[in-house]
Amino acid sequence: MKLWKTAWRFLPLSLLVFLLTGCLGEENLTALDPKGPQSAWLLDNMLLSLYIMAFVTIVVFAIFFIILAKYRRKAGDDEIPKQVHGNTALEITWTVIPIILLAILAVPTITGQFMLADTEPDPEVGEDTVYIKVTGHQFWWQFDYENEGFTAGQEVYIPAGEKVIFELHAQDVLHSFWVPALGGKVDTIPGITNHLWLEADEPGTYKGKCAELCGASHALMDFKLIALERSEYDAWVAGMQAEVEAPTDEVLAHGYEVFQENGCIGCHAVGGEGTAAGPAFTNLGDREVIAGYLEKTDENLEAWIRNPQALKQGNKMPAFPQINDEDMDALIDYLRSLEVRGE
Ligand code: HEC
Ligand SMILES: [Cu+2]
Question: Long-range contact list for 258-262, CB < 8 A, 24+ apart?
Fold first, then answer.
């Protein structure tokens, strides 16, 4: 009875765990529903070890309960049973069985490690294999397409059905690059270059997270990996490479001026212009969220520009409370117009 009382106390906690597990299903943010060869292998290997573990547990507990029932002391049974020391046959058995089980687990694990670590170009795509330099910053992700000559922030685009190689760096502190639906996480470490490859079986949007506590807004350091058909991907690359002309529309031209005069361009590159000390804005208009997590409404854009610290504590963007309302509206229109893919 006492046991049940204790067990009930754990009910709220178990319900909470149950609910939180539900969160992982959102936006392809789960390793349990793999969408690429890497994550599929990881899940298979996890299940194999789970099955072996379950088998061992069931056998051991079955023997335990059988022995408990069969050899328990019965009424009137006062004699001490025969004492046994050592049994070679049994000892060999319980040494050999785990060795076999571990071998069954070791073979796919070791071959899989080589598969996961193989960052040679995709054999079918050859020289055209997409190679992306990833840099983790407090608290956003930079994606440099060095061969193609442009940079992107917050969202990384890849062609679906192809192996894509990521070269991982960190600007400031440890971060960890993780797209759960596509593969394992790999740390980005200042001064050290790591590599990872990922492949998305199908076009789609896969949510990514920083998986290494990196400061106050670590939990908001989200990004998206967007896999497109090769032809659409090529069109996106061409769009990112295209020369961006200053807008001619009156409001947009005014917004562009506000953008230049306040020095936004010093941190937010647009096309080939400006530096990317912050996320590049060439395709800002295509994003559904800003700063990795905030819905891209006009209100949120304004609130962000006026006081970024209030929305993402510790991030590296200065506040611009001084911009007047008219300038702000034009600025937001201009920011929204920076599209590569359009609606
Ligand atoms: C000193 C560099 C710097 C300047 C100047 C700067 N920003 Fe930023 N900005 C950043 C950084 C860094 C981030 C990324 C914050 C994060 O997510 O951690 C950012 C993020 C943003 C975002 C969210 C972008 C996204 O990719 O989702 C917007 C919008 C933005 N800035 C607008 C502006 C505007 C408008 C100005 C000029 C009024 C400006 N910024 C000036 C550094 C700067
Ligand atoms: Cu981080």
Answer: 258/323, 258/327, 258/328, 258/330, 258/331, 258/334, 259/331, 259/334, 259/335, 262/320, 262/323
Q: Are 129 and 230 in contact (CB under 8 A)?
A: no
> What is the tally of structural domains in the chain?
2
- For 31-86, the pLDDT digits (tens) are 889 999 999 999 999 999 999 999 999 999 999 999 999 988 888 888 888 888 88
> Bridge-partner residues for 140, per DSSP?
137
Ligand 1 pocket (Cβ < 6 Å) reads 139-140, 153-154, 262-264, 266-268, 277-279, 287, 290-292, 301, 304-305, 312, 315-318, 320, 331
Determine, yes or no, domain membership for 78: no
pLDDT in tens, 277-324: 999 999 999 999 999 999 999 999 999 999 999 999 999 999 999 999
Distance 144 CA to ligand 1 centre (A): 18
Contact 294, 222 (CB under 8 A): no
Q: How far apart are CA 255 and CA 259, in angstroms?
A: 6
Q: What does the block give as tokens for 121?
A: 């170009």
Task: Kindly report the protein residue whose alpha carbon is nearest to atom 8 of ligand 1.
Answer: 317
320 and 295 in a common domain: yes
Q: Any idea which ligand is nearest the CA of 309?
A: 1
- Summarize pLDDT for 246-289 with one digit per residue, the tens: 899 999 999 999 999 999 999 999 998 888 899 999 999 999 99
Cα 26 off chain centre by: 13
Q: Which of 156, 317, 332 has most ligand 1 atoms within 8 Å of CB, for mutation?
A: 317
DSSP 339: -
| Pair (261, 321) in one structural domain | yes
- Measured distance CA(170)–CA(156) in Å, rounded: 16
* Residues spanned by the domain of 301: 250-336
**Which residue puts its alpha carbon closest to atom 17 of ligand 1?**
291
